[in-house]
Each structure stands twice: as structure tokens, then as C-alpha cells.
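Submission sheet (multi-component)
Chains listed below:
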Amino acid sequence: MSGRAELVRGAGVVKRFGGIVANDAVDLVVAEGDLIGLIGPNGSGKTTLINVLTGHLEPDGGEVVVRGARMGGRAAHVYAGLGVARTFQLTQLFGRMTVLENMLVPGLTRPRSAWDEVVRRAHRYLEFLSLAGVAQLPAKNLSGGQQKLLELGRCLMLEPAVLFLDEPFAGVHPRLRDELITRIRELHQGGRTFVVVDHDMESILRLSRRLVVMARGRKIADGAPDAVRADQAVLAAYAGL
Amino acid sequence: MRWLPSAILLVAAALALANAGRLSSYWMHVAIIAMYYAILAASWSLLAGYVGLFSLSHVAFASIGGYTSALLIQWRHLPIPVGMLAGVLVCGALGGAIGWVCLRMSGPYLAIFTLGFSEIVRITISTEDDVTAGMAGLHTDGLFTAATRLPYVYAAFALLAVSLLLMGALVRSRWGLFLRAIREDEQAAAASGVAVARCRILAFAIASGFAGLAGGFYAHYIGIMTPSVGDLDEMAKLVVMTVIGGMERLPTAVGGAFVVQVLLELLREYGQWRLPIFGVILLLTMRFARNGLITPFWLQFLRLGEARVSALPAAPTLPQKEPGT
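Outcome: structure written.
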């Protein structure tokens, strides 16, 4: 990451739920231009780490730094304002609002945003995501794959510096999964930074330029996909794969 | 032709006002009370329908607004509009405080909390009879000295119209979009950059302020404030009005207030049985028409003169990352 600006840093992140340590002193730096695949078995703490790094959970230890600002105690919307966008493991849309309104909400939270300009930008992104034809439908009426695309579109309306995508390929038809991968690649080439969590190893390996592996709340590997795949600790964590 | 529904409403309102003088004193009273409830129903729909905050303390704020205005006028001899404005401000501040305390509450927890607050207000007013005159009732000055109720009809209409214009402007603005997003999913709204806590507090403050305005007007129309203004029966009546009309739109909530208030009068011959009748209507509405009974008619009305949706531009282009983001 030499020469690239650091966007999000989790330093020694600890998060406990009762007696369970979901994140145990995890360090993760996301730098501009990264396309990180974050993988690990169920319960390894991936979603908890994303929740901490995007302000949806307050860490019990360690700290989160976004673009140089220490975020201790800040609300999730402040992270969004600083360009940290995210999707959710189980898609969370504004179900009874239209697809277009879903896109307008994040666009209009940006400072000095003008309504007409935000509407134009929303239509452009809906075209890009092949959702223009359903712009006036309630979001809850979309298929599972379209909902994932809309969640991605909603993130894009924040004009984010970094996008954390939590299981974007889960339950998505292979054709729509390929479309999602294509869109993520195009956006990455356009300058966006991504952290993608998923269990779909094939998709993650197709997509990511850097692989981070978690197991039992700890980060056990971080590097180029080929090197990480040969790592003994990773093979042990994924024994049986 | 998108102006057609607005034009029809304006003409209807002008005709109603022009002919208001022909109503009997009794029906003028019914209209005034219906407009009092209409302000309450619209502001409660702002809170419960738009933001999803099912507060049961709304009529308590009407009561606080009425007592604040009445007491300030009694103690400080303020002009009545100034007393009413003070009631609005006190209710707005208290509502904001309640909103802040309830930040992490929703659904049944929020309902129970606000129910508790409502009862505290009612019992305090009943008990502190040195200040509030308790159950005997606090006599208030009338807003007008005229022998007829007509000025009150116009005043109630003006207050309702201004309230609806202000609340309508809010729900059509980006803040209205944020409030609905919070109702749908608070976590996703926060992830989209919506300051959830600020919006919830603001919604509580604004809705409570309008409840205080309605209460202040009621106090200076009826001429006496009693603790029953803020009791649970009143809250139940407000819920029935708003839900039957349609709680997710201001006009349908207002329509519900008018329909229920007028029907309550027309069904008087059935005595207490009219209340279970409305209970049954409420149950049927919740089961078969959760958007309210007036909503389909309102949506049909809005479609009058509506232009067909224009085609969207073609040719997808990859949006580029904005510089500096």
C-alpha cells in the first residue's frame, strides 16, 4: 500500500458479546484502490469487523481511524459522511419506498446536494445497475439479486471512498452474481475501493486483489490471493475445503 | 394538469368557508372540534405514520399546550396568541426531550414509555389543583368575544391549513424522505448518512409542537381545561381517527378525523354503542386495509390529471468517482 492513502484503519479491534470474543485484537488497513476479499468460516468475526469499521458497533478495545480521524463514539452516519459505505449481510432496503427513493436518501444526505442533481445521478446509477426499468417500484417488490444491486446503488449514491459489501453474492442467481462482479470490477477500475465479505470462494478469488482471512475472531492471513491460499494456517482453518 | 387536485381542494375549501355561516351553532361546534382533532391526527401521523414512532403521549402534549397557554395568560396576562405560541414552544421542547430519552426505543417499548409519560402528565394535572384547578377545570379566556362560533371556525381552519402546509412542506422535503427511511430501517438509514438520532428528536419536537398548538386553540375555544383532555380515551380516539383515515399520509389522517368526528355525532342515538362500532371498524381496517379506508380514494383523487410517466434516458454510462471522495 506504499504511496496509497489510508482510508480506514482498524487497530487492535476487540469486540465481545458476553463471553464470546468476536474480534480479538484485529488490525486491518484499507488503502485507496484496494479490492479486498475478506473470508473466513462462519462465526470467524467478519461481519462484526465490518460493523465496527463502519460505525455500526462500538469496539470494546482498539480504535477505528477513517481518513486520519479517530472515530471513537461517532455514529454510523458520520462514517457514511466520510465516505464509508456498506451493504448488509441480509439485504436492508427501505422496502416500502420506491427504488428511486432508496437511491435519493443517501444522495440527499451529502452536504450541498441539490435535489435535481441527485435525481439525475440516481437515474445514471440505476441505468448502470440495470435497474432503471424498476425505478418507480417499491424496493420490496424486487428479486433478491436486484435488491443486492439496489443496495450497491444506494452505497454509490454516497460517492464513497470505500465500500464494505457483506455477502453480496449470497442467494443471488449466478447470472446476477456475474453482473454484480462485473459492476464491482468496473467501479474498482473507476477508482473505488472495496472490501467484500463472502463465502462464495470462487467469486471472491475471481474478484479480489488482496485476501484477508479470519478465524475465531483473529486475522490469520493478509496478502496476495495466491500466497494466502498456500498459507498453512489458512488451510488448517479451512480444513475440509 | 398536476395542479388539478390542488385546485379542486382550494375551491372546495373556499366554498366550505363561504358557506360556513349557514351551519347551525351545533354543527359549527362539530366542525371546530373535528379541525382540532385533524391537527392532532396529522401531527400524530407525522410521528407514527412517517417515522414509525408509535407514541401514545400525543394528546398529553395537547393538554400541556392548553394548560401552558391558559396558565401563562392567567399569571402574566399575555395576549392569547402569545400564550398559544408559548404552549407550542414548551411542547416542542418537551417533545424533543422525550424523543431524546426514547432514542433507542421503538415499537411496544416506545408505546409503553409514552403511555407512562401521558399518565404522569394527566395525574399531575389532576393532583396539582392549586395550580391547575384539578378536576374542577381551569377556566380560560376565549379567543374571540363574538356571540357566534363562526370566528372560531375560521380560526380553526386557518390553524389547520397552516399546520398542513408546514407539515406538508416537511414531508415533501429531503427530511421527509429521511424520516420515512428511518421508519423502514434505522440501521440502513444511518448507513446511508441519515442522522437518525437528530431526525427522531426533531420529529418528536415538531409533532409535539403541533399537538401543543391544537391544545392551545382548544383551551381558548372551549373555555375550560380539564385533565380529561389528555386522557387515554382521547388518545384511543385519535388513534382510531388516524388509522381509519390512513396514518401514512397527512390528508388521509385529516380525513379520518373529520369522518370519525362527524359519524360520532350522527350515531349519537346509539349512545355508548357507537364506540364499539368504531372499535370494530378499526379492527377491520387493521385486518383488511392497513393503509386506511380513505387512502384508496385519496390516491384516486391525486391521479386526476396526472401525466403518464415519461420514458427514462437510455445508454448506461459508468459514473465516475467524484474527485476528492
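Remark: Confidence is low (pLDDT under 50) at residues 309-317 of chain B.
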